[in-house]
Design goal:
It is a single chain. This protein has eight helices and two strands, in the order E-H-H-H-H-H-H-H-H-E. The chain is mainly α. Strands 1-2 form a two-stranded antiparallel ribbon. Helix 5 runs antiparallel to helix 7. It is rod-shaped. The termini are close together.
């Protein structure tokens, strides 16, 4: 679990970092005179850290990628639903009145399956064996061999799409946690600079104010679970 240590939104923190970097370009010699660690290399690293933070784009990229994976799953689910609709026609035609056989094809319980990814995967995985068991009767009723063979391909497509979606959910959580850790590091650095400014510009109130943190914004206190 990663928690933001800073009481601001991510964008406010990065804006503070960006502003502080620009002021340091003018005042770095004064800071170095007070603390030799606050030198040009320190400034260069800080600027890169802030730039990288902006470039990451928050969680927007991860969300877009997850939406894309979700759309693939939804499309696969719809294809499986359409396949069942056609299959149902041939099952009822081949086995009229035979409820026990119809039930093996999910005729009576498909409404509980059609909108649930896990249940649909289980259904499609088992369907190919059911079709194999009754293939002769289905083909005699008029179902084409190619149509009956599609069930395995659809099962593999849906399962693969679901795996990619779940994997992305996991990596999104890890990516976000890593980003928060980097921003926590940036916050610690900016606090150090602010503390140094209190000493470097102890007789220059206006200069001290340039390094002050932004107003508190508790909306940035999010918790990310890994």
């Amino acid at each position: 679990m990663s928690r933001r240590n800073y009481p601001y939104s991510d964008s406010s923190l990065l804006e503070w970092g960006d502003t502080t970097t620009e002021h340091l370009k003018t005042d770095i010699k004064s800071f170095s005179a007070f603390d030799k660690k606050l030198n040009q290399d320190f400034l260069t690293n800080l600027e890169k850290q802030v730039t990288d933070g902006f470039a990451e784009g928050g969680d927007n990229i991860n969300l877009a990628q997850l939406r894309q994976k979700t759309e693939v799953v939804e499309e696969a689910m719809q294809t499986c639903q359409k396949y069942f609709k056609r299959l149902k026609y041939w099952v009822l035609d081949a086995f009229p009145g035979k409820k026990a056989i119809q039930k093996q094809f999910g005729i009576s319980g498909f409404t509980k399956i059609k909108d649930n990814q896990t249940k649909m995967i289980q259904y499609m995985e088992g369907l190919k064996d059911t079709i194999k068991r009754y293939r002769i009767e289905l083909e005699k009723a008029g179902a084409s061999s190619g149509f009956l063979d599609q069930s395995q391909e659809l099962a593999e497509t849906l399962r693969g799409a679901n795996k990619e979606q779940e994997q992305k959910k996991g990596t999104r959580t890890v990516d976000t946690a890593d980003r928060v850790e980097r921003l926590n590091d940036l916050y610690a650095i900016l606090r150090k600079i602010n503390a140094a400014a209190d000493n470097v510009f102890e007789d220059q109130a206006a200069k001290r104010e340039l390094y002050r943190p932004p107003s508190r914004n508790t909306s940035g206190n999010d918790t990310i679970e890994e």
